[in-house]
Amino acid sequence: MARDERRSPGEELDIDRAVNAPRIAIEHIEPQVCGGRFAAKALVERPITVTAVIFADGHDKLSAQLKWRPVDGAHWHSAPLLHLGNDHWQGKFVCEEPARVEFVVEAWMDTYLSFCDELGKKFSAGIDVEVEIMEGEALLRQVARDETDANTEILQQFAAAVARDSPSKNKVELLLSKEVVDAMRRAESRPHYIRSNSLYLEVERRAAEFASWYELFPRSTGADATRHGTFADVVKSLPRIREMGFDVLYFPPIHPIGVTHRKGPNNALCAGEGNPGSPYAIGGDEGGHDAIHPQLGTLKDFLALVTEARRQGLEVALDFAIQCSPDHPWVKDQPDWFRWRPDGTIRYAENPPKKYEDIVNVDFYAAGSIPDLWLALRDLVLLWVERGVKMFRVDNPHTKPLPFWEWLIEDVRRRHPEVIFLAEAFTRPAMMARLGKLGFSQSYSYFTWRNTKDELQHYLSELNQRPWRDCYRPNFFVNTPDINPYFLQKSGRAGFLIRAALAAMGSGLWGMYSGFEICEAAALPGKEEYLDSEKYQLKARNYAFDGNICAEIASLNRIRRANPALQTHLGLQIYNVWNDNILLFGKRTEDLSNFILVAVSLDPRHAQEAYFELPLWEFGLPDDAAMGGEDLMNGHSWTWFGKIQWMRIEPWRLPFGIWRLTRPKREV
Amino acid sequence: MARDERRSPGEELDIDRAVNAPRIAIEHIEPQVCGGRFAAKALVERPITVTAVIFADGHDKLSAQLKWRPVDGAHWHSAPLLHLGNDHWQGKFVCEEPARVEFVVEAWMDTYLSFCDELGKKFSAGIDVEVEIMEGEALLRQVARDETDANTEILQQFAAAVARDSPSKNKVELLLSKEVVDAMRRAESRPHYIRSNSLYLEVERRAAEFASWYELFPRSTGADATRHGTFADVVKSLPRIREMGFDVLYFPPIHPIGVTHRKGPNNALCAGEGNPGSPYAIGGDEGGHDAIHPQLGTLKDFLALVTEARRQGLEVALDFAIQCSPDHPWVKDQPDWFRWRPDGTIRYAENPPKKYEDIVNVDFYAAGSIPDLWLALRDLVLLWVERGVKMFRVDNPHTKPLPFWEWLIEDVRRRHPEVIFLAEAFTRPAMMARLGKLGFSQSYSYFTWRNTKDELQHYLSELNQRPWRDCYRPNFFVNTPDINPYFLQKSGRAGFLIRAALAAMGSGLWGMYSGFEICEAAALPGKEEYLDSEKYQLKARNYAFDGNICAEIASLNRIRRANPALQTHLGLQIYNVWNDNILLFGKRTEDLSNFILVAVSLDPRHAQEAYFELPLWEFGLPDDAAMGGEDLMNGHSWTWFGKIQWMRIEPWRLPFGIWRLTRPKREV
Question: How far is residue A294's CA from residue A290's CA, in Å, rounded to a whole number?
Fold first, then answer.
């Protein structure tokens, strides 16, 4: 019954198909990703807005609705689509549970609505409507004839009433009455009914879009750099991390580390005695991806850490790095998962220009890998999920096959819809977007290299627009073990505050790698890498370091939790400030009940001042209106009067301002 | 064998499908209209550019190509796709004949290209490549093993040569040699081959995008307004029209006109004695859409006119108006093609707020209409095609069903690919675009109501962008019998020149309704309609009227014919001119061999002057470069020096300038 629009223009449209082809056009349904090939991103509890362009020939009125259900659900829910004008329609619905959701748009010609519209207008204009009344009666009878249920009788009674001798006025009133209109609606007579193709949403739990990530190397939580830290040491660090307001605690790989070609400090080709090696060289005599590095503790210790972290409000995220040290058990046990070179070796990993001599990669398309390797990798994820890990940061997903990710994520999420995958890909835009389309809940981003006002404005805006907004959630990491940003190497403490504010306010997802909070920035000369990187050696830090920014980080995370507008990268709008060193943007909830204005000076050294536009128009207010402001970093409140305002930012105090805007109560 | 990307995210991706799913991604293929649901517009002889985003995991090199064929053709043509960088690929091809064309994008991993790239780099860097050489030999043997043809032997010989004892340098040179690379390419080993969905192009003859239309009422070509003009009179008008440079001559309906409810002068509800009625009230005792109004002449006269027009370089276009006067033979002969009201009448036509009491409409979905009415209408078009008419202006297509047009146009064009349909729809944007998607070659546009610089800039630019550029060709009519633009009612002669220049330069298609060339503008007071409209009465004009703009129109059409850049609405770019009364735009062919700069003052009364930017950068020239200019309206030539230039436009002389830019010959 449902006719949809699918048809390839290469097929001949014969007359039989033509007369049965849909009369109504449905176009531009949003959200959709690649024409419906992928699911668009959505969240539980947040209204999902669907828009479409719907029209037909002639002047008849159309009606339309939205229908949706979880893909494994039998029952369809429906929501009305409202005509916004100019053929644009909009509807909304909310999902309570994480699931893959299917939705369609339906439309039909609303004959009776068209009739009522015309009848009402003509009657009001004093035009004779005798014939129209007869047409109305015929419409009622027609629909009653097609109906079989209890409604039939009601419609026939109305038709009979219209037919009876009485003044036109009474008949018109009856035909336009709510009772008749409702009965006609119940009859669901839907001439020229059309239904769109199914489109899909991946509805995830809120942490997919709102979370503050903190990364640390568990082995560096020992009292000093001579002692290998343990999961028990990590437990001791939890209060410090939680006080800063983070809610995700992410560890680089915690598995045994190989010894063959083990890297030494600062990526030295040969490790010295006692060097721990890179945790990314996964696997050794003690086991592979399913095992735990013995010096970190036992599985029991890990489970205890996960439990205690959760008790304190922190969720543990693990690294999923599909690579092996040459000592990984798979190299011996599953040799046909690797591609061997003619000289009997396996090629080591490269991510040009970087070389990883201590790592070999599996070959996803080797004859022996299909499907065993794929299944083994999926089972590894499931194993850690069973151990209580529901978040995975995936290392370099763009160097593994796209269909592998699509399958793995779908498979895992069908069993555990709460699992979240973060893509650690730094590559070209098409691949960045594609990973999101395939199912990664969130992704590393270009944020780390967006420093100027122009760069930031462009990037923050782009992420709010289609196609990005439907397929990609950016996790703004201010640093990572691999990225010691040039800006921070020279910026001093104010620079760290600048980047923290940009990340924490710019996106619902932000991340920090330990050391940032004490403004660590010593670099390999000329490189964007840390000196004495923890990737290759143990490290001990004094987090009570004078000049740390822990309190400011705690404030940022506190403000994020208190303000829904800050719990997503969406709803961001750039505003005018007449100074190229100051970025000004707003974040708002759709209903404007929460509106935050963020001003960040990008200059860590000098005071900057400027006039700026207070976005009164967003509230429908005139340029001379009053607006309440509250500084969320220090609690001060005030009232602004008028659109043009002035600010001064002194980076040695605080290089940014975060202001909540509130419509002042109307004075009576 | 061909794997494409189609998959709905609602389907489960099991492991077998996953390992066989395409490894390579192809996205954003352009042109495509509504995800391939409709054919994109293209022209014979003009290169068709196809772009796509193509990428895969990892660092292997990809190769890609474009394949295309007429939908009824067996043989595929192919063209290479070149990598422009950042995963963007581009290819071009040309069609010689009008046809519906199918195309696909194919990609695969180019293993040997990746190998050569790495081998060359390593060898140049002095790295030992013994293992790489062995890998190269293995690659040759591998491909030879999969091959069965003559190429096999060649590849085996190369492999053997690589295996022989000789210096590495020789082996590397052999592996990288053109002979080996070509043999490998011939072998067409294409791991991870993927092919896109088919997409479609409607390739039409050039007049679909480049033509100058002239509209007249044949009955008004008599010597005076008392004598009904004839086709023989039209023949006498041909030289005058052709001298102005038009190439399409379009007539409103030429069929018999009904007498019931015939309209009188100025849309009077009742015609007086001898009033000819509206030609849109089609059909009477003398026949319907297949007949010719007896006062215009016979079919023989019409055929003679078509032939003589063609001899003089004018193609005749007819109106296809699907509506009937109450006296149309169908009303009696095919009563079940109409919807009868309860009082035994047929509702007259409305196009709110306009009422057409002298017209009734067929009902496309009446039980009796399916499919007879649809076939009858198609046959009418075919009848007139057989009578030599290859262009149809379709009246109000947006009030007839969309599938009807899609079917009719496809059916007619499959038999006669040269037939052109012009959609006369003035309605909301989605419908305007949809009619183009369904197959209308060209369309009336909003041009008539775009008057200010801002409006014109926006509209001209929008038509150059997707989705419009792929589905919609605008025919810029400066006036029509239904539209006497407010601007022209008050502008005087200069205003007519302004609108003619904007239309003729802005689009490859422009149109004029007779009277425009003598600046006719008398209006029904307060309305955008002509006083004493020809729609309801005979009219006689003195085309030799002093102050006519025939010479300027002739120049515009001459310039259009001489400059390929002006033969399309595409390739238009707005440029800076610091005066809100002057619009400045450029039109260029893709190769820049033809570059026209058009400046139009929008002020018909006062002189306007301004500095403007000469677009030297488009030619890759610095801001201080020299550029040749030629005024195409008067033949003057000069050289500009530098980017910032000045202009002055005096509307009483000529309110616009048309300059051809030519790169000055380099001095030796």
Answer: 12
Q: Which pair of tokens denotes residue A221?
A: 């939580």
Residues 6+ apart with CB under 8 A from B668: none
| Spatial contact of A217 and A250, defined as CB atoms under 8 Å apart | no
Question: What average pLDDT does range A364-378 have in this prediction?
Answer: 96
pLDDT at site A281: 97
Contact A412, A419 (CB under 8 A): yes
Neighboring chain B residues of A13 at a CB cutoff of 8 Å: 403, 406-407, 410-411
Q: Give me the torsion for CA of B193, B194, B195, B197, rounded to 10°.
A: 170
**Does A132 participate in catalysis according to the annotation?**
no
Predicted TM-score (pTM) of the model is: 0.94
Taking only the tens place, the pLDDT of each residue in B430-459 is: 999 999 999 999 999 999 999 999 999 999
Cis amide prior to B371 (ω within 30 degrees): yes
- Quote the DSSP letter at residue A218: G
Average pLDDT over residues B138-159: 83
> How many helices and strands, by DSSP H and E, does chain A display?
16, 28
Structure token digits, residue A612: 């700026």
Helices (H) and strands (E) in chain B, counts: 16, 28
Task: At A269, list the tokens.
Answer: 């080709």
Catalytic residue among A424, A517, A534, A552: A424
Residue A499, strand partner residues = none
Q: What is the mean pLDDT of residues A459-469?
A: 97
Burial of B48 (0-12, 13-18, 19+ CB in 10 A): buried
Q: What are A650-654's contacts with CB under 8 Å, separation 24+?
A: A650/A607, A651/A494, A651/A497, A651/A498, A651/A601, A651/A603, A651/A604, A651/A605, A651/A606, A651/A607, A651/A608, A652/A494, A654/A497, A654/A552
Contact present, A40 and A34 (Cβ < 8 Å): no
List beta partners, residue B30: B51
Smallest CA–CA separation between A301 and chain B, in Å?
34
The whole-chain average pLDDT of chain B stands at 94
Where in the sequence numbering do the catalytic residues of B fall? 395, 424
* Listed residue (B478, B420, B422, B469) closest to B447, CA to CA: B478
Alpha helix segments (H runs only) across B210-335 = 231-243, 299-311, 329-333
Cα nearest neighbour of B414 on chain A: A12
CB A257 within 8 A of CB A325: yes
User: What was the ipTM of the complex prediction?
Assistant: 0.94
- CB-based burial of residue A602 (10 Å sphere; 0-12 exposed, 13-18 middle, 19+ buried)? buried
Could you say which DSSP state residue B575 is in?
-
Cβ of B540 under 8 Å from any chain A Cβ?
Answer: no
Give the pLDDT band of residue B259 (cuts 50, 70, 90): very high
Helix H or strand E encompassing A508: none
Please name which of B235, B234, B232, B241 lies closest in space to residue B217, comparing C-alpha atoms: B234
β pairing state of B248-251 and B211-215: parallel
- Bigger pLDDT: B584 vs A5: B584
| pLDDT for B668 beyond 50 | no
CA distance B616 to B644: 10
Which of A19, A138, A198 faces B342 most closely, judged by CB atoms? A138
| Least confident window among A169-173, A640-644, B361-365 | A169-173
Q: Which of B6, B87, B135 sits opposite A341 (nearest CB)?
A: B135
Asked whether residue A98 carries a pLDDT value surpassing 60, the answer given is yes
Among A4, A5, A7, A8, the residue to mutate for chain B (most B Cβ within 10 A): A8
Lookup result for tokens 């010597």: B223
> Looking at the predicted structure, is the pLDDT value of residue B6 above 80?
no
Contacts of B58 in chain A (CB under 8 A): 399
Query: Element (H or E) spanning A460, and its range?
Result: helix A453-463
